[in-house]
């Protein structure tokens, strides 16, 4: 099974996840959010559809918290608006994003990643 890991290379959690994937022999491709260019909104929408908006959007990020309260509320209540804002600033995405044919997992939790890669994920 091939997986794609999306993220920001300077993120310590992304680096940790990539290191784990290499050590586990996970057949994967790594893609920087910035490399997605104009296609990033479609990716974000797909991740929302597969994992849920609350799992994809990082409401604990400094960038999210720096937004005015009305924008934060709108992002949480309006998925189209959230996709637009996350595409403009991918640092508000929970990372890394692991995508396989079996599902999408955000953040790095070894148990979830193992389950997704073995077909046991509940996050699909």
Helicity range: 40-55%
| Amount of beta strand | 5-15%
Mean pLDDT across all amino acids: 92
- Strand order in the sheet with the most strands: 2-1-3-4
Q: What are the low-pLDDT stretches, counting only 5+ consecutive residues below 50? A: 120-124
- Assign an overall shape: globular
Biggest beta sheet summary: 4 strands, mixed
Q: In whole angstroms, how far apart are the ends?
A: 15 Å
Structural class: alpha+beta
For the secondary structure, the number of strands is 4
Indicate the radius of gyration in whole angstroms.
14 Å
Assembly category: single chain
Tally of DSSP helical segments: 7
H/E element order: EHEHHHHHEEH
Give the key terms.
49% helix; four-stranded mixed β-sheet; alpha+beta
Concise synopsis of the structure shown:
The protein is α+β, with helices and mostly antiparallel strands. It contains seven helices and four strands. Strands 2-1-3-4 form a four-stranded mixed beta sheet.
List the helices and strands and how they pair.
Blueprint: E1 3-7, H1 12-24, E2 28-32, H2 40-51, H3 53-56, H4 62-65, H5 69-77, H6 79-88, E3 97-100, E4 103-106, H7 110-118
Parallel strand pairs: 1-2
Antiparallel strand pairs: 1-3, 3-4
Protein model, in words:
This protein is α+β, with helices and mostly antiparallel strands and 124 residues long. Helix content is 49%, strand content 15%. It has seven helices and four strands; from the N terminus they run βαβαααααββα. The chain has a four-stranded mixed β-sheet. Helix 2 crosses helix 6 (79-88). The longest helix is centred in the N-terminal third of the chain and has 13 residues, at 12-24. The two termini are 15 Å apart. The model is unreliable at 120-124 (pLDDT under 50).
């Amino acid at each position: 099974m091939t997986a794609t890991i999306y993220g920001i290379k300077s993120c310590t959690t992304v680096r940790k996840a990539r290191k784990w994937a290499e050590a586990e022999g996970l057949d994967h491709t790594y893609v920087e959010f910035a490399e997605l260019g104009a296609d990033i909104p479609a990716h974000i929408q797909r991740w929302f559809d597969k994992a849920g908006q609350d799992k994809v959007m990082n409401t604990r990020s400094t960038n999210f918290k720096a937004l005015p309260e009305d924008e934060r509320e709108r992002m949480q209540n309006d998925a189209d608006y959230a996709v637009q804002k996350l595409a403009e600033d991918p640092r508000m995405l929970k990372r890394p994003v692991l995508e396989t044919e079996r599902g999408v997992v955000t953040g790095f939790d070894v148990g979830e990643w193992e389950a997704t890669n073995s077909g046991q994920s509940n996050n699909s």
